[in-house]
Each structure stands twice: as C-alpha cells, then as structure tokens.
Amino acid sequence: MGDVAIIVKVMPESPDVDLEELKAAIKEKYPGTQDMQAEPIGFGLSALKVAIVIPDGEAGASEEAEQILASIKGVQSAEIVSLTLT
Predict the structure, then answer these.
(1) What is the mean pLDDT of each run of 10 residues along the chain (86 residues)?
(2) Spatial distance between the Cα atoms of 69 and 8, rounded to a whole number of angstroms
C-alpha cells in the first residue's frame, strides 16, 4: 500500500474571503496539506485547489478530509475533484 493524493476544490463563501487567511486556516486544520493553488472562478471569486496526501487503505479518509475542509470558517463548500495513488 502507498499513499493517495487527493485534490479538493475549496469554494470560499464570497470574494471578500482573504485567500491567504484561508490557506493558513487550511494548513492549521489539515496538516497533511501539500500544495494550494488559487483558481479564478469569475466576478472576483477564486477557489482553492488543495492537494492532500493520505495513507492508502484508511477507510473514509478522503471524505473526512473533505468534511474537515468544508467546516473551516469562510468556506462555502469543499469537493473532491481528483484522487490518485502516489
């Protein structure tokens, strides 16, 4: 067994959410975060694509990561967009 890389699209509640503060909150809440990139959506709103690496074989770990990210203040939603073995 190896590791699984998950890409989660994190959508802020509004364009007024500070992405740098959101990145810091994500790193604090989920230490397994490897990388984050802003993706412009439109009308001043940008989503964050967050890369997380978790051990393969942990049942429900990807859904748990999604729920943890969605629970952060300022986040409207978090959705897994990609999952691959590393």
Answers:
(1) 88 93 92 90 92 80 88 94 87
(2) 9
The reported pTM is 0.87
Strands 33-42 and 45-55: antiparallel
User: For position 54, which CATH number holds?
Assistant: 3.30.70.60
* Contact assessment for residue 27 and residue 10, using Cβ atoms and an 8 Å cutoff: no
Compute the residue count for the chain: 86
* C-alpha pair distances (Å), 71 with each of 3, 13, 29, 38, 56: 24, 12, 9, 19, 23
Residue 60 is encoded by which pair of tokens?
């429900």
Q: Residue 43, SS3? A: coil
Structure tokens that stand for 35 in this block: 């990388």
Number of domains in the chain: 1
> Which two tokens mark 53?
């690496």
